[in-house]
Amino acid sequence: MSPPTTPPCTPEWRRRKSDRREGDTEKRTRFFTMVDTGLSIKEARSDPRVNIHRNTATNWLKQRANIGSPAYRRIRKEAMRTGTLGHPRQINDSTLDFLHSAKNPHRRQNLEFQLDVYNIPVIVRCAKANLSKRKDARRYKMRVVHAIAKGNMVKRVVYGHDHKDHTVENYYQYVVYRDEACIDPTSLWGSDWILRQRGTAYEPENTLTEEPTNK
C-alpha cells in the first residue's frame, strides 16, 4: 500500500501553513514603521510581531518603492481590485470600450459576428463575461421611439394653446380619456438588439426612432 500523499493535519503543519500566508496590513505597517525609525531590516523582520523571512522583507520594501502606499495592504487584494491578478487578459480595456461604444458600427449584430469582424481571438462566452464583469455591458433590446407625424404635432400644439388655462375643476374633470396602446406583433421575433452599458437605454445612439406611417 502506497503512503498517503496528503500531509497529516498536525499543529506543526498548520503553523507552517499559516506562516506562508501573505502578511496583512497590520504586520506590513509595523515592519515599515520599524525600518523607517532606523532599525535594520534584520532587526525589523526578526521582531516577534513581524517574524518574516529576509526575502519577504526585501520584496515588501521593493513593493513600497514601486507602488507606494498600496504596499501597506495585501497585494493580492489590491491586485484583485485593479484586475492585475492572474494571467494577462485576453481582451484589453480599449477593445471592450470600443465594442459597446457608439463608434462600433456593428453593435446591433450578434457578438459572434463582431468578434469575427474585428479578429478578436476569444470565444463568445469569454467576450460576454469580460463585457459584463469589467464594463457592465451586454446586449439589450433597443428602446423604440415612435415619432409624431407633422399633422398630429400641429394638432397637439393647437390643443395645448386652446386649453392651457383650463384646470381640473372647470374642465378636465368632465373629459374622459381612453388609454392608447401600440402593439407590434413583429417585436416578438424581429426586435433590434444592441450592445451597450447598463443604464444607457435613453441615450440617442441607443434609441431606435421609427417614422410615422401617416405623414
Please tell me about this protein's structure.
This protein has nine helices and four strands; from the N terminus they run ααααααααββαββ. The protein is mainly alpha-helical. It has a domain at 11-82. The strands form two sheets. It has a two-stranded antiparallel sheet with strand order 1-3. Strands 2-4 form a two-stranded parallel sheet. The chain starts with 10 loop residues before the first helix and ends in a 5-residue tail after the last strand. Residues 1-27 are annotated as: Disordered.
Largest sheet, in brief, is: 2 strands, antiparallel
What is the mean predicted local confidence, pLDDT?
Answer: 82
Give the percentage of residues in beta strands: 5-15%
- What radius of gyration results from the CA coordinates? 32 Å
- Total number of strands: 4
Please identify the structural class as seen in this structure.
mainly alpha
Number of helices: 9
The strands making up the biggest β-sheet line up spatially as 1-3
- Straight-line distance between termini: 89 Å
Helix content: 40-55%
Biased composition (Pro residues): 1-10
Region (Disordered): 1-27
